[in-house]
């Protein structure tokens, strides 16, 4: 769907500040993206990916067929050593610029007037001209780019905790396919859950183990998943994950000396997340059906991406992963990864690997190709492996085939002849 319709979610990108905002397209209401405010009713029926300019509180489509003010430049031998940047080289004042904006003059015309009234523009180098024009266009002609919500777009935003390359690495190593069953453990948001659910589709199942008191489904709503797609998502609280191990629960009861203690106090023993939120108390009865599903089913993939220690979660969910299932753990601490690697190595796994996903952004321009000055190079440590078990298994079964011992026929040794 490349046409914008009423009620769908749209991502607005401000070219001046780089801010992204995903909103459900309203009717007869304003959209505010700092520092711009405009009406979005004119977007109904338009295509995604077009650029607009805010003029008198309305969106005006930019004609992309016209030549841009900034063009690629080649290397030149000039310098700016004789240019005095003291503010006196611009004839137009700030009041003149504000007056042009109040009259409804577009940012294109304002930038052209600034070029014509600048006494130092023509003596600048070609690099300085391109940089100066880019700065003025971002200041006086901020564009609003309307984009369709996508996983890659959300991962590229400044608020995302997972870079696009890290997210792609996790999905690839977890071997997520259409119709598979996966467990996703993450905190803060549901970006990873949305990416897995989009790959699994309607025929599969995604079970999200959430940390807070309510499930994370923000990105799933922004991607406009259908009701059938949302039914394939299941949620289970992290604080009740300890109920998968009845032996540990019985040990806690014995330590307390009484089995009539309050249920809430028992549940607090198995609360693995470090952060607690005030609000409605999570009731185990609301997730009893999901608990039985988690306890009886075997899953094809287990993905853990959290800021707390994932080792207790791995211990509890390891038996829920089927044979030949894929495990992926992403964390920022190497010591935690090594502890998980020793655990899965003892349990039985193949293709065990621990990598640090390194990423570097590079500006590619004629004569100005260099790495960006400020960037995040490290994306965290990623552990991935395939679960293996001893024994002989039939295709699609998680129970080993028990072969009946065969009777060895007795061999009679002939007596030597005298």
Describe this structure in words.
With 418 residues, the protein is α/β, with parallel strands linked by helices. It is built from 13 helices and 16 strands. Strands 10-9-8-11-12-16-13 form a 7-stranded mixed beta sheet, with helices on both faces. Strand 14 and strand 15 form a beta hairpin. Helix 2 packs antiparallel against helix 3. The longest helix is centred in the first third of the chain and has 15 residues. The chain is elongated, with a radius of gyration of 30 Å. It starts with 8 loop residues before the first strand and ends in a 31-residue tail after the last strand. About 7% of the residues have low confidence.
Roughly how much helix do the residues carry, as a percent range? 25-40%
Shape: elongated
Strand order of the largest sheet: 10-9-8-11-12-16-13
The pLDDT mean sits at 77
Total helical elements: 13
Poorly predicted ranges: 250-278
Major sheet: 7 strands, mixed
What proportion strand?
15-25%
Q: How big is the Rg? A: 30 Å
Helix and strand succession? EEEEEEHHHEHHEHEHHEHHHEHEHEEEE
Number of strands: 16
Give the termini distance in whole angstroms.
Answer: 96 Å
| Secondary structural class | alpha/beta
């Amino acid at each position: 769907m490349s046409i914008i319709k009423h009620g769908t979610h749209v991502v607005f990108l401000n070219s001046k500040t780089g801010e992204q905002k995903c909103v459900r397209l309203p009717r007869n209401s304003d959209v505010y993206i700092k520092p711009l405010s405009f009406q979005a009713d004119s977007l109904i029926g338009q295509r995604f990916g077009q650029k607009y300019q805010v003029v008198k509180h309305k969106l005006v489509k930019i004609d992309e067929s016209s030549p841009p003010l900034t063009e690629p430049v080649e290397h030149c031998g000039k310098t700016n050593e004789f240019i005095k940047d003291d503010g006196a080289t611009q004839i137009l004042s700030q009041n003149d610029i504000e007056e042009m904006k109040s009259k409804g003059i577009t940012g294109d015309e304002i930038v052209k007037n600034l070029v014509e009234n600048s006494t130092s523009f023509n003596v600048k180098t070609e690099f300085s001209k391109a940089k100066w024009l880019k700065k003025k266009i971002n200041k006086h002609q901020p564009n609003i780019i309307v984009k369709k919500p996508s996983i890659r777009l959300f991962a590229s935003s400044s608020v995302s905790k997972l870079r696009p390359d890290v997210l792609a690495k996790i999905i690839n190593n977890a071997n997520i396919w259409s119709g598979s069953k996966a467990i996703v453990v993450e905190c803060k948001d549901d970006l990873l859950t949305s990416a897995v659910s989009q790959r699994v589709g309607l025929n599969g199942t995604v079970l999200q183990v959430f940390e807070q008191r309510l499930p994370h489904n923000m990105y799933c709503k922004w991607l406009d998943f259908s009701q059938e797609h949302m039914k394939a998502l299941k949620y289970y609280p992290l604080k009740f994950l300890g109920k998968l191990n009845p032996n540990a629960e019985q040990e806690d009861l014995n330590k307390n000396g009484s089995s009539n203690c309050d249920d809430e106090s028992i549940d607090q023993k198995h609360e693995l997340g470090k952060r607690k939120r005030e609000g409605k108390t999570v009731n185990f009865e609301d997730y009893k059906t999901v608990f039985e599903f988690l306890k009886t089913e075997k899953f094809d993939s287990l993905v853990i991406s959290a800021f707390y220690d994932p080792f207790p979660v791995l211990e509890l969910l390891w038996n829920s992963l089927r044979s030949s299932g894929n495990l992926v753990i992403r964390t920022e601490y190497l010591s935690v990864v090594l502890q998980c690697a020793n655990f899965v190595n003892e349990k039985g796994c193949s293709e065990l690997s621990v990598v640090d996903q390194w990423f570097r952004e590079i500006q590619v321009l004629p004569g100005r190709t260099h790495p960006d000055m400020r960037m995040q190079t490290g994306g965290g440590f990623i552990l991935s492996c395939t679960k293996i078990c001893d024994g002989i298994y039939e295709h699609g079964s998680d129970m080993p085939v028990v072969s009946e011992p065969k009777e060895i026929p007795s061999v009679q040794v002939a007596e030597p002849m005298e």
